[in-house]
Amino acid sequence: MTIAQKLSFDVQLSDHARTAAEREQVLANPGFGQIFTDHLVSIDYTEGQGWHDARLAPYEPLTLDPATAVFHYAQELFEGLKAYRQTNGSVVTFRPYANAARFNQSAARMAMPELPEETFVESLEQLVQADREWVPTTEGHSLYLRPFMIATQVGLGVNYPSRTYKYMVIASPAASYFTGGVKPVSVWLSTEYTRAAPGGTGFAKCGGNYAAAFVAQRQAVENGCDQVVWLDAAQHAYVEEMGGMNLFFVIGGKLVTPALTGTLLPGITRDSILALADDLGLEAEERLVSVEEWADGCASGEITEVFACGTAAVVTPVGSVKGADRSWTIGDGTPGPVTMRVREELLGIQYGARTDLHGWIHKVL
Ligand SMILES: *Cc1c(COP(=O)(O)O)cnc(C)c1O
């Protein structure tokens, strides 16, 4: 239940923020998700009262009772988006209202409270403003923003969802996913494990989906592959996603992506690429894609490229596929022209080198 109210943020700036020199040292080589900025956002929720105590505060550890619900029943969800420093110096985010809407779809599935979209977007703005110096200036780098929500009620009862929650946002400078050129990944088709089944939580961005996925990702690596590709739970016949990214196929020159059946995570990058296709003069289609079509299409030359997409790595070419009984290469195994064109277009909009025809850019500073 959303309680309509305008929250105002209490702002407490850190008295132990890192020095410019310390920050520059991190920004010279940020990696991904290892080092966090000087501040965080926190908003609490209590059933009957709604959201309260919105604050921007110094980054610090949480102290929680060991019996807190999230530790036991995984009532948790998250989002992921980036702040970019554009070529003209402004700092922007990309489609933050889409993340806000998805956050609330995930919340509804997890029996958690929705957060007003305005509050979600303001929480990002508060953090980016306070930690503006942490938004990298290096080309291709960004400030990764991680909003999340946890169930905070103390007690082991399982008859009712938690009555209290905490929403937070933390931020971490991120290097370009590919250093030294875009490199295709190899993928492992998982038939032993499934990520999501109809009626489950596949469309929700919840940590539990990831907890259940690590064993298959480890199996992919044991099979010499970079990433796991998930197939549908019932038949293991249709392609769903790659790790934490959505997939696109170039079939007969057309962009094809697996349809959102409820078991796939509705990626904002995926949605953006579908919208961009028209600008790029490409046809796009959402439908089921089977493993058989993938293998046969690569053999016949009908499928020329496959790529994965998501906020973290933007667009990643897929070079080869390995399954329990067959393996194949996509095209000649190198990044294809459509993949690179889509990647360039998306990055161009995010960093301001290209015109934002869709109104996706949200200026923060
Ligand atoms: C977050 C996520 C994606 C990509 O979503 P974007 O909004 O494009 O970043 C795809 N699949 C899974 C499983 C995810 O968690």
Structure description:
The chain is an alpha+beta fold and 365 residues long. The chain folds into two domains: 10-174, D-amino Acid Aminotransferase, Chain A, domain 1, CATH 3.30.470; 185-351, D-amino Acid Aminotransferase, Chain A, domain 2. The chain has helices at 20-28, 69-73, 96-109, 117-130, 207-211, 214-222, 268-279, 291-300, 337-351; strands at residues 10-11, 39-46, 50-58, 76-78, 81-85, 91-94, 142-151, 164-174, 185-190, 227-231, 239-242, 245-251, 254-258, 284-287, 303-310, 314-322, 327-329, 361-363. The strands form two sheets. Strands 1, 2, 3, 4, 5, 6, 7, 8 and 18 form a nine-stranded mixed beta sheet that branches. It has a six-stranded mixed β-barrel with strand order 9-10-11-12-15-16, surrounded by four helices. A hairpin with a 3-residue loop joins strand 15 and strand 16. The longest helix is centred in the C-terminal third of the chain and has 15 residues, at 337-351. The protein is globular, with a radius of gyration of 21 Å. The two termini are 32 Å apart. The model has no long low-confidence stretch (mean pLDDT 96). The site of pyridoxal-5'-phosphate has 13 residues, from strand 12 and helix 7. One of its GO terms (biological process) is L-leucine biosynthetic process. Its cofactor is pyridoxal 5'-phosphate. It catalyses: L-valine + 2-oxoglutarate = 3-methyl-2-oxobutanoate + L-glutamate; L-isoleucine + 2-oxoglutarate = (S)-3-methyl-2-oxopentanoate + L-glutamate; L-leucine + 2-oxoglutarate = 4-methyl-2-oxopentanoate + L-glutamate. The modification N6-(pyridoxal phosphate)lysine is found at residue 205. It holds the Pfam family Aminotran_4.
